[in-house]
Amino acid sequence: MKSTTQATSMHIEEPIRIGFATTPEEKREIYRFRYTIFAEETAYNLTQADQQINLLYDDWDDWGILLSAKIGSTIIGTVRINIGKTSDFHPRVIQEYRMDKFRKFYNEEDSPYFAITSRCIIHPQYRSTSAFWLLTTKLYELLFYEYQLHFVFVSCNFHLISMYEHFGFRRINKNTTYPKTGTVSSLVLVNDLQHLRRVRSPLLRSSRKSSTLNEGSVAWFNSEFSYEIKSTINSRLITGDELWAIIYQYLKNISNQTIALLQGLSILEAKLFLHFCSTIVHCNPGDSITADGSISQEAIVLLSGLAISSQHATILPGQSCGNSGLVHRTVHSSTVVAETDVNILVFSFYSFISFKKRHPKIAAKIINNLQQ
Q1: By CB neighbour count within 10 A (0-12 exposed, 13-18 middle, 19+ buried), where does 294 fall?
Q2: Which of 31, 95, 162, 207 is 20–30 Å from 365 (CA)?
């Protein structure tokens, strides 16, 4: 594989090709690409074995489907898909994606297959290109129309939720904490064309509008997960004014006077920033909001409920949770746990990169607040 430097210097005019890694050499190329991105970009807590061989892989790669996005012969992105029955997954994984509940959609005698997507990585130079869309589209077509599955799962850190919601994934009110990656939220993709249309999902271009394959699973999901659907504030289905009003209800005050990150911003500026960069996330009692030693690629503010820091501090609504990675990635120096049901406001590192380009004056005020 070409080096990161070589990859960044390639001309994007060349077409991006999506393919399957099937040979040991092709898979090894993906493992090396993963390592390069994690080691160089996120300072991922790699094991000693990973560092010795400069490869990043695990047992799931042995039976997973590996997709790659390439320009020429150089990998610029990849994603992994694992398809299996509940008996193929560890009990922890079944719990993480609430598979036992999804199992109820099928008849008792059925032995259904589920799909889990993971290890989705795009080279930073190509995150504003069609690479992620092309990979996700191939995944969507493969799983729903070729394998004819009904439910596709993914887990992501809080700062990536809005990106997956844009493609049509929906939260199922389940968070899980991992020592290396921190806390992740579980989401599911159902082939709900109406929902894809509402969020303006790029996947609509590839949907088969005449297909009735998933009508039963869509109706079941909307009924079985009606509480989660109603209680989740989907980042793609809310206006800036609506988000502002919801935050006001939580904090009992206007955001730019309560949240330190927003101080000095006008109401119009604060609304713009909130709508562009933030997502409201629900955490259940006992959920870790941040994990000591994990990478912070976000800024988090408590909106409701109580949280406790491992540094023996009680966090109240309006206060920050963990270390801010909004401008520069950093490492969380404490674990923050939800003492009650809580709602948090998560500002995304990646969204802020785009926001700075579009609104540099507002971004400068926010950065100044972070430096205080």
Answers
A1: buried
A2: 162
Phi/psi region, residue 337 (left: phi>0; alpha: psi -120 to 50; beta: rest), is beta
pLDDT digits (tens, 9 = 90+) for 87-103: 999 999 999 999 999 99
Distance separating alpha carbons of residues 233 and 210, to the nearest angstrom:
30
**Which segments of 54-147 does DSSP mark as H helices, in order?**
91-96, 99-103, 131-140
Q: What is the pLDDT of residues 49-60, one digit of tens each?
A: 455 678 888 999
Q: What's the one-letter identity of residue 33?
A: F
Domains of the chain with bracketed CATH: 4-231 (3.40.630.30), 240-371 (2.60.120.10)
**Which of 369, 158, 364, 181 is closest to 278 using CA atoms?**
158
Distance in angstroms (rounded) separating the CA atoms of residues 366 and 327:
9
Rounded to 5°, the CA angle 330-29-131 comes to 65
